[in-house]
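User: Second chain of the day. Same drill as before.
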Amino acid sequence: MIRIVSFNVNGIRAAIRKGLKEWITRNNADIYCLQEIKADKDILAALEKEFTGYQCYFFPAQKKGYSGIGVLSRYKPQEVVLGVENYKYDQEGRAMYIEFDTFRLANLYLPSGSQGIERQIYKEAFMEYLLEYTQQKFLSSSKSLIIVGDFNICHQAIDIHNPQGLKNTSGFLPHERAWFSEYLGLGLVDSFRYLNKEPGHYTWWTYRTAAKLRNKGWRIDYQLITPDLEKTVISHVIHREVDLSDHSPIELTLGIDF
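Assistant: Same format as last time:
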């Protein structure tokens, strides 16, 4: 059995100050895939000692205090690949690929388009590049594949608190949702929806307007799996009780071994 957590920490140092290290100790999962770490190499090197018992792999953005991803793993992987072979996207630290004996794992942090048209264009270009890269690289092996991360897209109306009012908002635009369907169509399964078909389950809430208290949220964080893993899914949990970020950690438990 393996337990994999995906968590946009909205700044790893801020999350540590709020209790990230203590929560990881209590939660004790096998792998933590972190997004939006917002720290450079020197800071991350110093932080590695905070996560005893885990191998630490980080891919920071070149811009300080921005973007970046990381993986904490109890088990040493066979291979760690940083980026998607494209400097335009890799300078922002948005993708990491890890291979273990029995499965592959990709950690992703897709851009947000909410800062304006320029960033929306960048986001959509990355989406199209990722679609092809996933098909050619991530899915190029017969090994099981798990893709986790913050996609900054709500796939269906059930995944957002106000689908009608937000239909023209970045993150829920019709063509973004269509892209997500196409991405799943490569041969991927949304593990949360595989188990749970109910509305009202979200992973991100704005800090404004007491949105989390009122559960006015978006489900933009995912753990996608190849179909061969469907019957091994034991649980998928959104840790809504964890208040270390504007996102909640999501946790997938699979009945497979490393």
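The chain has one domain: 2-254.

User: Great, on to the next one.
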